[in-house]
Amino acid sequence: MGNEAQRTRESFSEKALRYLREQIINGQMPPQEKIVESEIAHCLGVSRGPVRDALKQLAVEGLVDYQPNRGCTVALLSPKDAYEVFYLRGSLEKLALEKGGGRISDEGLFRMEEAVEEIRAGVEKKSTSAVVAADEKFHRQIIESGRMDRLVKMWELLSPLNGAMFLVVKKTNELERRLGQERTLDDPFHGDDLGAHTRLLETCRRGDLQASLRALDAHYIRTGERIYRLSLRDELPEK
Amino acid sequence: MGNEAQRTRESFSEKALRYLREQIINGQMPPQEKIVESEIAHCLGVSRGPVRDALKQLAVEGLVDYQPNRGCTVALLSPKDAYEVFYLRGSLEKLALEKGGGRISDEGLFRMEEAVEEIRAGVEKKSTSAVVAADEKFHRQIIESGRMDRLVKMWELLSPLNGAMFLVVKKTNELERRLGQERTLDDPFHGDDLGAHTRLLETCRRGDLQASLRALDAHYIRTGERIYRLSLRDELPEK
DNA sequence: CGACGGACGATTGTCAACAATTTTTAAAAA
DNA sequence: TTTTTAAAAATTGTTGACAATCGTCCGTCG
Fold it and tell me: Same structural domain for residues A41 and A130?
């Protein structure tokens, strides 16, 4: 069920890419940690070539910093980065919505419903990766509604970073809660995240462009701004 | 004079990247032409490794199509692509302007003036590459006024494609002229392009955000739409 | 005691050869 | 003639070795 026929097994480059992305997004490789090609290569049982390819790609995505002749480090994602990523992703999706007139295909709407369910399940199981995947599935329907290939590509380039941001978001939430403001209702992910997606789905179903744009703003961009402002007030304890 | 100190000579990867970009944007490699790694490598006197790196990067930029195990071809850029690239670049710059409140630093304004001069000179000398470079310089000031690193990075990723689009634009202009509508005043590059930039510079200098946004729309995005509509009405003669 | 400079080690950049895959070619079968 | 099949050629994917570069350590000089 589901997946397109996968005729060729993934290359070693893709394997390394997947591995490194996962390590970074899951936080197993802390920010600013040095990444040595030969180590990764040995660890995966491949040579350095494919690992190099993967690192170059990750540099484009912004998950690692690449300094010529000096090597790679896991990118240190500041709250400002989080803000920018949220803002950009949200802006791109707004562009898509406008281009598509706020209308989403029946199939797209159906997948968005599925995604909402998956988010609900992921939250219950406390599985961050499940939530991230479902969140991506949800928003993918939005970005694709604009029917602009380049727009989708850009959005996809931003996706891995967005995944990494969930870590920052989690920390911020905990911090905020500790600061005493128990407004879990406005919590971006494990609180009202579900509600935000539900509301957004509803406006999309109605085809109400303006309402969808507002809902997107509320869900996405303001979360970024909140994180950013919070970080200015109180440095995040970077590991 | 001018350039930042270039302490390390460019790597072979960068050399190959520059070479291939130039070839493609100048049209010396026609769309859909197959690119064979070993040929390029031999042609540049390097091995395949650096050429591979360059091709991967070009694939991200959208200048080549990369099919695993099957190799590369020069990307075939349709009028719709042109439309999307213009639209996206314009949209990103509008985001930057909004973020920066429509205000641009004195140094930025100065560089924009320089760029306008360079465009004027480039048009006179009929040097497309000079116009492209100056155009990039001009718009870079705008995208940087938003002070969002990720936004700038995305814009930079789009730049090479934008360069390639000048070819499409040129063809479209010729086609349009041949169709009898002698409205060279609305000509995007070798006609009123200079004027559009001048007007945009003027609104930026005043710090008039709304006017700048409108000017940007007129200059950038509508050019894309015009190209797209024109192409629907009359297939562009793809070489 | 601190600044300068050269050897050393670690790591990336590049290469040429090999393996795996795809495309082409040509022959055989229908 | 057209289709099918298999061998051959061309091309990409991968590898291990070598070269170039960078950071560090340690001895020398001021």
Answer: no
